[in-house]
Amino acid sequence: METLRSLVGDPELFLAAAWRREARVLRPSAPPAQLVTLADLDTALTGGLLRRPYLELVRGGQNLELGDFTSARRVGAHDFPGYADPDKVLKRVSSGATLLMRNIDHWHPGAAALSGRLSAELGFPVEAFLFVTPPGEQGLGTHRDDADVFVVQLNGSKRWQVHGVPATGEWDAGYTSHPGPVVLETTVEPGQVLYIPRGAPHSAVGRSGGLSVHLSLTVRPPGTEALRAVRTTAVPSLAALAEVLDG
């Protein structure tokens, strides 16, 4: 449980007292190292391959139009829409939009390694999402996630409001206009981790002092397709395959 320890401190105490019960700000003595840097994000945005749905821009609970942050790329004789346009993205973020990058575990080695280790320890699929929010701005409105969430603050700080876990199982993921009473209001700083139980409504606003960057590790109960999936033997890397063929 070393990966969980890096997020929550004492894993046994956390699982017994907070898991699936209540939101908490955690201050692990050895939090995960700087997993994702702003330089990493610049590289991804300018690399030419990042496209929707791996990124969205949102502000005040509203998604920006596709053309506001992407452009078409020409491959051969055809134009393909939806590719990240770095200039447009920076312009929108500088004017108040939040950059949401989905499933960075698909392309960022550090996020992939952390998600994989946490998934192995908890026995559930884990995905990694990244949020970049300007000071004083809010990306998503108050919403529920169909997952337990570990928010790892990487840069700047963010003010959070978390509401209570629903008393019954009759709730839907997504935006809600009736979140119930606030049970935790706090500012999360780098080196701290906010745990949000599955179903607990929450929202956040970037604080002053630069861009707020946080990594959300979502621990999601497996759906029917995941339960049916059978993982086959790992495919070697291209470098490993080249060595095999050369031998």
Question: Could you characterize what this model shows?
Answer:
Helices cover 24% and strands 31% of the residues. The chain is built from seven helices and 15 strands. An eight-stranded antiparallel beta sheet has the order 1-13-9-15-7-6-2-3. It has a three-stranded antiparallel beta sheet with strand order 12-10-14, with no helix packed on it. It starts with a helix and ends with a helix. Mean pLDDT is 90; it is low at 224-233.
Q: How are the strands of the largest sheet arranged?
A: 1-13-9-15-7-6-2-3
Helix content bin = 10-25%
Residue windows where pLDDT falls under 50 for at least 5 positions? 224-233
Whole-number mean pLDDT: 90
Number of strands: 15
Radius of gyration: 19 Å
β-strand percent reads: 25-35%
Summary?
The protein has 247 residues and is α+β, with helices and mostly antiparallel strands.
Properties at a glance:
31% strand; 247 residues; 7 helices
Furnish the topology, listing elements before pairings.
Layout: H1 2-8, H2 11-17, E1 24-26, H3 38-46, E2 55-59, E3 62-63, E4 70-75, E5 78-84, H4 86-94, E6 98-101, H5 109-122, E7 126-133, E8 143-144, E9 148-155, E10 158-163, E11 174-175, E12 182-188, E13 193-196, E14 202-206, E15 212-219, H6 224-228, H7 238-246
Antiparallel strand pairs: 1-13, 2-3, 2-6, 4-5, 6-7, 7-15, 8-11, 9-13, 9-15, 10-12, 10-14
